[in-house]
Amino acid sequence: MTVVFVSGASGFIAQELVKQLLQKGYTVIGSVRSPSKGDSLKSNLLKLNLPSDRFNYEIVPDISSPGAFDDALKKHPEISVFIHTASPFHFKAKDIEKELLIPAINGTKNALIAIQKYAPQVKRVVVTSSVVAVGKYGKYASPGDKFTEQSWNPIDFETSKKNTVYGYFGSKTFAEQAVWMFVEKENPGFSVSTVNPGMVLGPQAFPIRGRDKLNTSSEEINRLLKLKPDSKIVNVESTFVDVRDVAKAHIAAFEKDEAQGKRLLLIAESYNTQGLLNIVNKNFPELELPKGDPAKGDALKTAPDTWNTDVTKKILGFDYIGLEESVRDSVSQIIDGKIAQSRL
């Protein structure tokens, strides 16, 4: 039976990944920052009648500390696949270099070094990156930009320290660059794939039990549900992929030989805030959210095709969940959890 290690197992993407791995018959060992996070994940799996006996966890309190993953890998020589999802994703950092950039870069390096030193039996490694390591944003963006799996964000380290948004862009870009530099320099005994999703939306892996349980991605939807009928709409554009497809892509990344050494760029659709609001208003009119300017939600349907992900689609071989289904499932889950009932 294949044993898969998932770092950052309590994260948004990782929890869905753990679910899907167990459903496919894999045994999973996850790293979490505390026993309470590991116990909570194990309990949630049990409540969904998933084989929680095939999930165990190891404590890695700080992925950026030297040797962070050494003990976990020494303890489990049965691990043959390593999926590194652990990386900070929030916009609250006060010290961007210390809280975003260094943990992402060093955490990734620590994982690769530990595998090379203590887990020679590991042959497949998958690293969660992001679309922001691929595209150009902010001062780097130009009209008519086009991107493929071979594109890179040109952001530099100093720019990354200017604000938390640039900090996040830098954290994903530099961490992924560290992956490919390691492969080139060390020629390890394992193959590497990266998964580069757009904005990851969709329902959380387990029922929501409180406002503090919402992750950064789910809050993208939840903040709309807090709007008053007369609230002004700030129309932000982004790319999207559902969390269930992201997890599925991580599994395909180690299962499929053709994914070895590849960047998998996951984009299902482009969207904007008005488009999200249109979907919520259509499916949940009882929420009485602001209408905004519905026509603006359709603007991206005729926009130039900025992203070419043909290589990824050919490797994965499955259709993505659409934006409307993803948003509908997210809102249903949030409403059931009674989270977004108070309007700000």
Low-pLDDT residue spans: 340-344
Instruction: From the alpha carbons, calculate the radius of gyration and give it in angstroms.
Output: 20 Å
Q: What's the CATH first level?
A: Alpha Beta
- CATH level 4 superfamily: NAD(P)-binding Rossmann-like Domain
Helix content: 25-40%
Query: What CATH architecture label applies?
Result: 3-Layer(aba) Sandwich
- Count of the separate structural domains: 1
Which band does the percent of strand residues land in? 5-15%
Could you provide a short overview of the structure?
The protein has 344 residues and is α/β, with parallel strands linked by helices. The protein has eleven helices and ten strands.
Give keywords.
344 residues, alpha/beta, Rossmann fold, 10 strands, 40% helix, globular, NAD-dependent epimerase/dehydratase domain-containing protein, NAD(P)-bd_dom_sf, NAD(P)_dehydrat-like
Give a description of the structure:
This protein is α/β, with parallel strands linked by helices and 344 residues long. The chain has a single domain, classed as Rossmann fold. The chain is built from 11 helices and 10 strands. The strands form 2 sheets. A 7-stranded parallel beta sheet has the order 3-2-1-4-5-6-9, sandwiched between helices. Strands 7-8-10 form a 3-stranded mixed beta sheet. Keywords: Oxidoreductase. Pfam families: Epimerase (PF01370). It comes from Candida maltosa (strain Xu316). Residues 4-260 form the NAD-dependent epimerase/dehydratase domain.
